[in-house]
Design brief:
The chain is built from 14 helices and 13 strands. It has 305 residues and is of the alpha/beta class. Strands 1, 2, 3, 4, 5, 6, 7, 8, 9, 12 and 13 form an eleven-stranded mixed β-sheet that branches. Strands 10-11 form a two-stranded antiparallel sheet. Strand 3 and strand 4 form a beta hairpin. Helix 4 runs parallel beside helix 14. The protein is globular and about 55 Å long. 48% of the residues are buried.
Length: 305
Amino acid sequence: MVESAVRVSDEVREAVHAGHPVLALESTIFTHGLPRPRNIAVATEAEERVRSVGVVPATIGVVDGVPTVGLSPDEIERLSMTDGVVKASLRDLPVAAAKGLSAGTTVAATAYLAHLAGVKVFSTGGLGGVHRRAQETFDESADLGTLATLPLVVVSAGVKSLLDIPLTLERLETLNLAVVGYRTTDYPGFYISDSGYDLEYSVDSPEEIARIVAIRDALGLASTLLVANPVAEESQLAPDLHDAVLARALSEADAQKVSGHDTTPFLLDFMQRETGGRSLDVNVEVYRGNVSLGAAIARAIAGSA
């Protein structure tokens, strides 16, 4: 199935087969999350960061309808710089493939393709979650349901604070998705290191995470371990500024009757404009930290196998 429906680069395939550490990276951060040319610079730096510690990067996206695990530098540049690249969640993959579209893959799609290729660890920026007013709209990211079915480790800085964080944490519990804070029990809010909500467990090292994964697998549990890795306090968006801008963003979204899948892009764009680009800088710092931690976890899991 993998051979016929998904293209896995030779480098990634050989590393997985040999038991070497591999880290999955998503493509939406450079297809939809960052402006040009900063997007390609961040994508290239992420791969270099992973390689510098002896881990193989597996950047994932869709190229001309072909889901690909292990994009080449030319493919990353093409997806970064070409207009018309769509955003594909898991449900969109068959449609994008049939239509020959190129796409950046969301957390759900990236995680699924990584699992098909045998990659065990995935670093992203922020997870999707339960949206505000979900009691009325039933708006919930496909990331949660997908990760509940995949035995991966996903490193993120929590969910973006524009979502409903307490409801998201409740859904994670219902879906049997374990969440551990990396050296903290404060659940991060992406732009800020502490969302104001607590986690039950923290972990102190990549090796401890590897032990948890080994026991999970021995128990036959097929759900993702979520590692919440907060941005450093000195790099976060100032909490007072964050709260004030977020309140204005939510109010403006209501005034303009923004809803559904348009809500998140609207709020993120508002945050970027109102913080003078500072939220974008935090986004990049979040991603760098998660990539570094993910690479260390991939090494620890490979070393314990």
